[in-house]
Amino acid sequence: MIKIGDVFAIATTSGKAYFQFVKKIPPMGSLIRVLPGTYHDEPDLDVLVEEKTNFWIFFPASAALKQGIIQKANSCTVPTHSKETPTFRAGVVDPSTGRVDAWWFWNGEKEWKVGEITEEQRKFPIRGTWNDTLLVQRIEEGWLPEKDRR
Known about the structure:
The protein has helices spanning 45-48, 61-66, 132-141, and strands spanning 6-12, 15-25, 29-34, 55-58, 70-75, 88-90, 93-94, 99-100, 103-106, 111-115. By secondary structure, it is α+β, with helices and mostly antiparallel strands. It is globular.
């Protein structure tokens, strides 16, 4: 069973990446914060968890741990700057334009329509659940929510 604050490692082509389990939010599941960098040697995880979050995403951490896809590296206190659920953005991509015309925000409890978003709001995490393949791909690409130009 995973606990709040647990830090996990996942293999990428450039070394291990680390993420921290923050909380479970129904109906989305396990909320993780992906930490910056990839490493050949394990970094000081107490220091790493204090860093700014690269991105937030929902990920089936318990299942991935049971399947041996991730390994528990440590358990660290979730830093103050990452205890609150971030506001996520979500929207439906228009197939004709490949863009989202109307965005919605969600804070883990309620959802509201906002329409167009600002460049600052583009940094909000995108609400979704990823499997390990997509998580690794996005880490390797250096993906960040603000780079997603939908």
